[in-house]
Design brief:
single chain, 112 residues, alpha+beta
Length: 112
């Protein structure tokens, strides 16, 4: 559409999801095989992205903070630390924090 130089369609575009849906849903027979062969992966079936859970950015074997021992919640015993990461706008900067829970001692570390 961008290269057609039509005044009415100069701001129009077609997203890739629409193109893939049309290729996998509409054609049948030999035409379908030829179109799929032109795609990057050339697979005969396709899973849409929105149907799955997004696994990017998840920590493997993560333990919930709700499962920590009760003595940590009381904050009476020294030696229990809690860490966090603070990210700036556009992930341009980041600061790591470590807090000792009983005394409130804070350590800040600039992350690159």
């Amino acid at each position: 559409l961008r290269h057609m130089n039509l005044p009415k369609l100069e701001d129009a575009y077609v997203c890739r999801e629409t193109i893939y849906t049309a290729i996998y849903a509409l054609p049948v027979g030999q035409l379908r095989k030829e179109l799929i062969h032109c795609l990057r992966h050339g697979k005969s079936t396709r899973k849409p992205r929105r149907g799955e859970t997004d696994r990017r950015g998840q920590i493997p074997d993560m333990v919930s903070i709700h499962l920590r021992p009760p003595e940590v919640d009381k904050r009476e015993m020294p030696g229990h630390w809690e860490g966090d990461l603070i990210k700036g706008k556009g992930n341009a900067s980041a600061v790591g924090t470590l807090v000792e829970l009983s005394s409130g001692y804070l350590i800040l570390a600039k992350m690159h």
